[in-house]
Write a structure and sequence with these properties.
Layout lengths: L4 E6 L4 E14 L2 E5 L6 E14 L4 E14 L2 E6 L2 E3 L5 H17 L3 H21 L3
Parallel strand pairs: 1-6
Antiparallel strand pairs: 1-2, 2-3, 2-4, 4-5, 5-6, 5-7
């Protein structure tokens, strides 16, 4: 059995996971990141994407996050998500509402910096929509 570490996935709505795990793949802002026990300490931001969690039992669970932060230590990993759901609870309508809200916010954005951030976020949501719910 591989070494396990503590993992928590927390959103403002609820605590989704608090388990011993052997591996977590997170959608870090600069690319997907695999976290294993004894990982170097690091903090990173999250982009919208899928978190894959391999429990100590070997079972793999997936969650969808919509941004947030990751705090990684050698013996733990904590994701503080802006919003998160188990993958099986995400529907086409859920994602479409988020895409529509991002488009509406983009139309009302006043600064170029805010527009650029929203365009990136919208692109990530659209990509996520295709990955979670294939056409």
């Amino acid at each position: 059995m591989a070494d396990a570490f503590n993992f928590e996935l927390v959103s403002p709505e609820r605590l989704l996971v608090s388990e011993k795990v052997t591996e977590v793949v997170i959608p870090a802002t600069l690319g997907d990141m695999t976290v294993l026990v004894k990982h170097a300490p690091v903090m990173t931001t999250l982009r919208p994407g899928i978190v894959s969690v391999k429990l100590a039992s070997g079972q793999v669970n997936k969650y969808v996050v919509f941004g947030g932060f990751a705090d990684i230590l050698p013996d733990s990993c904590t994701l503080l998500a802006e919003s998160a759901l188990p993958e099986n609870e995400v529907t086409r309508e859920t994602l479409q509402k988020r895409i529509d809200a991002a488009r509406a916010e983009l139309e009302n954005a006043h600064s170029d910096e805010h527009k650029t951030k929203l365009e990136l976020f919208l692109g990530e949501l659209t990509h996520l929509h295709g990955n979670v719910i294939p056409a």
